[in-house]
Amino acid sequence: MDKAETYIGFCIKKGSVVFGLDNVERYRKKMYIVVATQSVSPKTLANTEHFCRERNIQLVVVPDYDLLAKRNCKVLGICDKSLAGAIVANI
Fold first, then answer.
1. How many Å apart are CA 85 and CA 81, to the nearest integer?
2. 33 by DSSP, 3-state: which?
3. What would you measure as the largest C-alpha separation in the chain, in angstroms?
4. What is the CA radius of gyration of the chain?
5. What are the tens digits of pLDDT across the range 5-51?
6. What ranges make up the beta strands (E) of 1-42?
7. CA atoms of 11 and 5, how far apart (whole Å)
8. Angle, vertex CA 14, rays to CA 10 and CA 17, nearest 5
9. C-alpha angle with apex 42: 82 to 90, nearest 5 degrees?
10. Distance, CA of 8 to chain centre
11. Which 3 state secondary structure label does DSSP give 54?
């Protein structure tokens, strides 16, 4: 387990995560980064990149973590500024 996965786990426990591309696109509050896994489909990745460009949010692509595979989630938004910075720093 690497540090980025640990920080994503902290975000999940804190409740500052939005799961799934549909929910990320509907979320209206401040989101600091969007995380996508490597196994996401090309179309979903293209949609995610387009959304991030429109909203000026950084997109981070990570390996397929067990933490996210258990939830069957491939795209999530991080809503905590300090943990988002830590995730970006450790990727």
1. 6
2. strand
3. 32
4. 12
5. 899 999 999 999 999 999 999 999 999 999 999 999 999 999 999 99
6. 17-19, 33-37
7. 10
8. 85
9. 25
10. 8
11. helix
The whole-number pLDDT of residue 1 equals 61
The confidence score (pLDDT) of residue 65 equals 85
What's the order of all strands across the beta sheet hosting 75-78? 17-19, 75-78, 33-37, 58-62
* pLDDT per residue as tens digits for the range 36-90: 999 999 999 999 999 999 999 999 999 888 888 888 889 999 999 999 999 999 8
Q: How far is CA 27 from CA 24, 55, 85, in A?
A: 5, 11, 20
- Please list, in sequence order, all residues whose beta carbon lies within 8 angstroms of the beta carbon of residue 63, skipping any fewer than 6 positions away: 37, 38
- Long-range contacts of 3-6, Cβ-Cβ distance < 8 Å, separation of 24 or more: 3/86, 3/90, 4/62, 4/87, 4/90, 4/91, 5/62, 5/65, 5/67
